[in-house]
Amino acid sequence: MVEILKSNADIEKYQVSVARCIVEKLATTENLIKINTDRAEDFLLGNIEDEFLKKIFSERTYQFENCEIPLCANDIGPFEDYGFPLKKIINKLGVVKFYNCDVYAESFTSGTPVLFDHCFFKRIWQLPNANALEMQDCLYVDCTFEGKVHSLEGWSEHCKYTAPQFKACSFRDKISVVNSEFLSKFFVESKASNLKGAMKNIAVEDSLFHEKFLCNEYDSVELVDIRGSKFKSKFEMKSCSIDVMKLIDTNVDGLIDFYSSKIICFEAKKCIFKGLSVFEKCVFGNNVSELNQTAFFEYVTFSGLVNFRSAEFCSGLKLDKANFIEEANFLDTEVHPKQTNRETFRIIKHSFDDVGNYLEGNKYFALEMKKYREEISNNRWWNQDRIAYWFNEEISGYGQNYFRPMELVIALGLINYLLMACKNSNCLYKILPELLKKPVDMIATFANDFAMAIFPIKRFLYPEMEFISLVSYPIFGVLFWQLIVAVKRHTRR
Predict the structure, then answer these.
(1) What is the distance between the alpha carbons of residues 54 and 60, in angstroms, rounded to a whole number?
(2) What is the pTM of this model?
(3) Model confidence at 363: pLDDT above 70
(4) Which residue range(s) make up the domain with 478?
(5) Is the pLDDT score of 223 beyond 60?
(6) What is the C-alpha to C-alpha distance for residues 102 and 403, in angstroms, rounded to an integer?
(7) How many domains is the chain partitioned into structurally?
(8) What is the pLDDT of residues 197-216, one digit of tens each?
(9) In what side-by-side order are the strands of the sheet with 140-141?
(10) Taking a C-beta distance cutoff of 8 angstroms, is the pair 329, 347 a contact?
């Protein structure tokens, strides 16, 4: 069999052979007697009209098995056939099945219910608006598309598809859907565990999906780019591995579910998710590439509940421009702080506080304060906020570490003890050079007299070490306060 029919003679010869084969097979398998085979062939080829033959063929199913369907050259055959040489024959039959066929044609139009089962599409394939078999739930089952698969873009202002499309199919090139409307499912889930599809690249633009969009368990997907589209029912991409995922100006009325998917670069912009949004156990970004792989939710409105439970954002998360109507669940979520902004941490902290989970909220409170310190650190000049936040982070990590202030209390107490012991034994003056004794004594006397001038705390100062006592008290006060706050935040803020 040749892949391309290059002349009208080739097409006619091919159609005659197919028609003869159909007539012979039906006559043999279904005991159709008293049929003029030549007249039946002429009927299938569209040369004559016969109501009796029309009734016979329209009530029967024919299966093309282990055959090749060639492509008609572009300069021959009707334009609307898209190079499909069997159109007029298929339209005479009641039901047509293609099993394990190699398809070199690029599309076809037919009102006859068809099924492609385990077929191989060798070239680009333009989705026809065909009817699926009543006993089947889609047009393509376990098929492999080696070329680009695209909707009827360019041929119609708006294309409406009525039949379910794909089940467990493999796409080795791009899927492109533009300005189309699907009244049935685009992807149909397979109940058989041994049937699993594959996909490389899918782009959807200005399209409407009325039924569930179920695209689960696809590995090594390079790009999912959905723009200006609407999904009126459920949208699922569970347990998928995706390099780049873009949802731009897209609305989902039902559940949107990415459960346990791995997405390196994720961007959602100007979207409305009206139902439950599930990102549970998802992994966004990776720890390998140096590229900016922050997960963006920009001008995204979550009208329903949002579940980020046990998700991991390896390259950061940005929710500062997202809108949450209902509460969000961030339990056991890991967010890398480097590419995450302060407002995102505030949103996560607030979600925990709303449900009374102050322990988890404290963790994100510390990250929020750390980001605020980074913001004010951009100021060239030191100010009181910058100093306060610096000490807060260095002493207790914004209340997340109570060992550090405890260690500092012990260290400062030990220093004071050593100074007092040295003072009592007068060893400081013994080890000082003779030239420094008088200047040190003058400075110490002045500092102690200054400390004694602060009358409210005069009686609490250690004799002859008044200045050191004056400095130590507020330091101890700050350390004890940080210690109390840190212990408290490990129980409740």
Answers:
(1) 10
(2) 0.77
(3) yes
(4) 385-489
(5) yes
(6) 71
(7) 1
(8) 789 999 999 999 999 999 99
(9) 61-65, 95-99, 114-117, 140-141, 166-167, 187-188
(10) no
